[in-house]
Amino acid sequence: MLIALHGFTETDLVWRDLLAPAFPEVRCLLLPGHGWKPGPAGPDFMAAVAELAARLPADGPVDLLGYSMGGRLALALALTAPQRIRRLVLVSSNAGT
What we know:
Strand order of the largest sheet: 2-1-3-4
Radius of gyration: 12 Å
Helix content: 25-40%
Strand content: 15-25%
Largest sheet: 4 strands, parallel
Order of helices and strands: EHEHEHE
Distance between the termini: 30 Å
Number of helices: 3
CATH class: Alpha Beta
Oligomer: single chain
Number of strands: 4
């Protein structure tokens, strides 16, 4: 399964419109504080990583695609729970400061 994470100030629609027609198994997650999802946008980065980990399927590792801020979250998750990630794709992202 492919999980796609959007960038800062964006929503899950940025990936859904692009990927869903070609990849029926893609899940485009909406991150806290973006779109209709309540919560501040990123004051506690590790809390966001923990929430993301809780939303991953439990039946095996996933492929994770992250753009910008979503890539930073994806990288942090891959470093803290590598057994949950099969492949990692980062687009215009960095490890943070």
